[in-house]
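A.,

Following up on our hallway conversation. Structure tokens first:
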């Protein structure tokens, strides 16, 4: 724009250019050309210093009025363009809510998530609540409080993931089972206690039926009257509800665990033929460990073993999911293969319930 132009002509051209701006970018370019550090109006403002004093005042007022007019025009045009852009986006991004829904959800729940929900549904009907704890634990809750002596092989480096040694010489670790949640629960709650603790656990092991990270669910009951018969009844009811076989054979074999006394392995009936395994039958398959809580464990949790007693049991979530849904290799659980998940996964709206069915 020529510096010799009259202010009226300059104003007319600027307002016409603002009105003709096709978009926010071009409008911003016009603003910079007129009002920027080297804009036409800014240059005229700078030239006021060279005018005589009697002319400077009138010229300055005229330039200020023009500047205000141009700024107002730019702001108005910017608002108009922004509204037009928004309207165009709303039209372009509109969703027709009258379209029919998909025949079924595209996503799938992982078998582990489904199995956890099934366990929660079954034990919830028995009056259990869900308890949780951190994946990183200290030696006391993971071993000592569970009556596992210092020389026990489970404490060794080849079986446990230890974190670097701290300043006081102690070492945190990735929990090797969800049993530390039982200790935390006893330390924070007064009996009676009836909880299950599903979660991730970690051990140095990897093959078709073991992975360094896997899932467990454990149960704990502590009160003044519970006994071994309650433990057996609870486990039998769970196994038959989970595998959906009302006559599923269940047996208990004597065993040894440091944190329970007496201790029992739990087997369910199965059939093995032609390399296939079927739940139910005359053969046996071990699925969990159980027993009455050892008095030393109660004592470590702050519970008086002379007044209270309890039972506990635990099983691998991945293992019972493999058995129920015929998944041959545990390692495929963690490969993030969408084709595998689409085959073995579950619809997210099919929430497990003993009333509607698992």
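Then the amino acids I'd put at each of the 358 positions:
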């Amino acid at each position: 724009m020529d510096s010799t132009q009259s202010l009226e002509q300059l104003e007319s051209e600027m307002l016409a250019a603002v009105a003709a701006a096709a978009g926010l970018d071009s409008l911003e370019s016009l603003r910079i050309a007129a009002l920027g550090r080297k804009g036409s109006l800014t240059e005229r403002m700078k030239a006021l210093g060279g005018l005589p004093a009697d002319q400077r005042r009138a010229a300055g007022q005229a330039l200020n009025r023009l500047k205000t007019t141009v700024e107002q025009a730019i702001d108005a045009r910017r608002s108009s363009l922004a509204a037009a852009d928004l309207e165009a986006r709303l039209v372009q991004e509109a969703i027709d809510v009258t379209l029919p829904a998909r025949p079924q959800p595209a996503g799938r729940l992982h078998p582990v998530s489904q199995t956890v929900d099934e366990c929660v549904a079954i034990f919830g009907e028995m009056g259990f609540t869900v308890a949780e704890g951190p994946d990183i634990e200290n030696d006391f809750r993971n071993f000592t409080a569970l009556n596992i002596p210092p020389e026990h092989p489970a404490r060794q480096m080849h079986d446990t993931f230890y974190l670097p040694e701290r300043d006081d010489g102690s070492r945190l670790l990735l929990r090797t089972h969800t049993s530390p949640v039982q200790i935390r629960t006893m330390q924070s709650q007064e009996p009676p206690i009836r909880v299950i603790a599903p979660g991730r656990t970690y051990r140095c092991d990897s093959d078709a039926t073991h992975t360094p990270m896997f899932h467990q669910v454990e149960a704990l009951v502590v009160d003044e009257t519970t006994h071994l018969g309650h433990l057996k009844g609870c486990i039998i009811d769970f196994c038959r509800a989970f595998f959906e076989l009302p006559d599923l054979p269940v047996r208990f074999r004597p065993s040894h665990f440091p944190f329970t006394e007496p201790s029992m392995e739990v087997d369910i009936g199965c059939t093995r033929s032609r390399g296939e395994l079927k739940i139910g039958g005359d053969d046996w398959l071990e699925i969990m460990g159980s027993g009455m809580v050892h008095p030393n464990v109660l004592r470590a949790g702050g519970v008086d073993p002379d007044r209270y007693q309890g039972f506990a049991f635990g099983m691998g979530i991945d293992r019972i999911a493999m058995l129920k849904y015929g998944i041959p290799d545990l390692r495929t659980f963690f490969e993030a293969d969408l084709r595998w998940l689409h085959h073995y996964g579950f619809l997210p709206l099919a929430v497990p319930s003993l009333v509607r069915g698992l």
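The two ends are 79 Å apart (CA to CA). Curious whether your intuition agrees with the design.

B.
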